[in-house]
């Protein structure tokens, strides 16, 4: 099994087979428009523009499971991304990343890269420990802007917790592109 075995729901309710991205390095990110980490859209877009011609794509998945920070419709989310950050990488339909209704792609990503979320995440660790203590020590996505790096073959390479910036990820990509 690989990430290429899944389909993503497009904002209009259609389906996008992720096998269409076979041969590309992917960064799969759960995004939100009203989060303190939302400015990462700027870094993600720059990373995408810098690396897309080398076989790299970012796939954004809006999620409203963390503090209700992605309440909008698909159209509102797309407008926000375009207006505020000139996002050109694909933003898919809103999904759940944890729980009984988690999108199958995210169930797979979490199982392949359970993460290493601990006190080194600083303010975010303290916040999650207070608001969702049951999530600590699990493979759950802890907050918006968790990133999964997927290789050209669809295998999950690594999980980056939300406080890891796109700029920090950039250098690691060079060896894969």
From TrEMBL:
PANTHER family reported for this sequence: GLUTATHIONE PEROXIDASE
Annotated keywords: Oxidoreductase, Peroxidase
InterPro entries per UniProt: Glutathione_peroxidase, GPX_AS, GPX_CS, Thioredoxin-like_sf
One annotated GO molecular function: peroxidase activity
Coiled coil: none
Source organism (scientific name): Williamsia limnetica
Keyword Oxidoreductase belongs to the record: yes
Matching Pfam families: GSHPx
Gene Ontology biological-process entries: cellular response to oxidative stress
PROSITE patterns the UniProt entry points to: GLUTATHIONE_PEROXID_1, GLUTATHIONE_PEROXID_2, GLUTATHIONE_PEROXID_3
Transport found in the keyword field: no
Active site positions, chain numbering: 35
UniProt family annotation: Belongs to the glutathione peroxidase family.
Protein name: Glutathione peroxidase
């Amino acid at each position: 099994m690989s990430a290429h075995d899944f389909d993503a729901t497009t904002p209009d309710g259609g389906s996008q087979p992720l096998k269409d991205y076979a041969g590309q390095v992917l960064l799969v990110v759960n995004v939100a428009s009203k989060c303190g980490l939302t400015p990462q859209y700027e870094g993600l877009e720059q990373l995408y523009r810098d690396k897309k011609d080398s076989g790299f794509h970012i796939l954004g998945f809006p999620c409203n499971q963390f503090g209700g920070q992605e309440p909008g419709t698909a159209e509102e989310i797309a407008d926000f991304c375009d207006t505020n950050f000139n996002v050109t990488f694909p933003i898919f339909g809103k999904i759940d990343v944890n729980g009984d209704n988690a999108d199958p792609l995210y169930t797979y990503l979490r199982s392949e890269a359970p993460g290493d979320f601990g006190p080194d995440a600083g303010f975010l660790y303290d916040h999650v420990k207070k608001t969702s203590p049951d999530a600590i020590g699990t493979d759950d996505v802890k907050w918006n802007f968790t990133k999964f790096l997927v290789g050209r073959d669809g295998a999950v390479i690594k999980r980056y917790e939300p406080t890891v910036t796109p700029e920090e990820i950039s250098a690691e990509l060079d060896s894969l592109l």
